[in-house]
Design the sequence.
């Protein structure tokens, strides 16, 4: 089996050594040994780090991500949690789209005061109503 030195993992993932040590400390990844003082990792560690990065990008906490790996380090992804997170992301996208439209309108509106602009007032009502729901 090919062994990856911590420097190779750093180079291939873009993570800092301190991040890798922290991930190991909290059980997200495991080193398979040392060469001198340098940690050594199995090639599957790269896949695990990719999944950790994806999970963080999706808004999962490191504790939640840790629960997505089995004892053998292989992913055991809870589909219901993934569906719920995808739904949350869809809502965020919707909210951010409304915000983007409001900001673009404010930036381009020719009204003397944005508070006098009917379209801006409508956008404010939509945002207010959407936040309550």
Sequence:
């Amino acid at each position: 089996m090919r062994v990856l030195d911590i420097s190779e993992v750093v180079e291939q993932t873009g993570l800092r050594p301190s991040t890798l040590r922290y991930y190991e400390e909290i059980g997200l990844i495991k080193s398979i040994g040392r060469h001198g003082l340098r940690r050594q990792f199995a090639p599957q560690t790269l896949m695990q780090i990719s999944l950790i990065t994806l999970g963080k990008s999706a808004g999962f906490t490191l504790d939640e991500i840790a629960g997505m790996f089995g004892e053998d380090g292989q992913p055991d992804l809870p589909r219901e949690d993934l569906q719920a997170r995808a739904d949350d992301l869809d809502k965020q996208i919707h909210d951010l789209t409304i915000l983007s439209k409001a900001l673009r309108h404010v930036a381009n509106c020719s009204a003397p005061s944005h508070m006098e602009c009917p379209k801006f007032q409508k956008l404010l009502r939509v945002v207010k109503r959407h936040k309550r729901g």
Q: What stands out?
A: The mean pLDDT is 86.
